[in-house]
# Entry
Amino acid sequence: MILDRLLGKKDAMPKPENALRGRAHPGFDIPTTHAVLGTPIQPPFPETMQTAVFGLGCFWGAERIFWELSGVYSTAVGYSGGYTPNPTYEEVCTGQTGHAEVVLVVFDPAKVTYEALVKRFFESHDPTQGMRQGGDIGAQYRSTIYFDYDNDSQRQIAAIARTTYNESLTKAGFPEITTEIGALETFYYAEDYHQQYLHKVPNGYCGIGGTGVTCAMPRPIDVVKETAS
# Structure
């Protein structure tokens, strides 16, 4: 308990005033090109593209499930949802930055919908586990969806999907969903060796695994009704 107070508990969010200080600029070089798709992983992106950010456990396996989708232009792994500016991986692993490991997904909405990405997100992990995912324990592994401030439809779709999937999961015997949904504040890119990790290390660790319960996505009319209410 004394050690927990000194170092902080990895399975709980730190208070902002206790978070690590971080730095004004990244402490490492960020790559520019996706190792699999050959596209940029940093903006500016083509004007026709949209972005989404998801956290579903260790970002190594999480990134691959999105770059494999047709219509996804680019992906990158990084850190969001915390307090420490420009954190390093080692800092995030202490549990004292508040960040989740996340995947930035750049996609063409004419080829793959945001609904399809959310469905892929929910069905690829267990969103009921709180500050962990399987054997990976800590706030950095929590289930998260961060939407663009300028795209309220993403917020609506994510919220409705969470509600409907929660109903399906509880019927299947799972506890309540713990997925955090919020507007994206900042996406901090992770170090080069994390980007497209499972392409660079094909036999590397992948902790991704779903519940086996299907996520029924809302129809467009459901989103319209939610907007009008």
Remarks:
- The mean pLDDT is 92.
- Helices lie at 2-7, 59-67, 89-93, 114-123, 152-171, 197-200, 220-228.
- Residues 2-228 form a domain with the Peptide Methionine Sulfoxide Reductase; Chain A fold (CATH 3.30.1060.10).
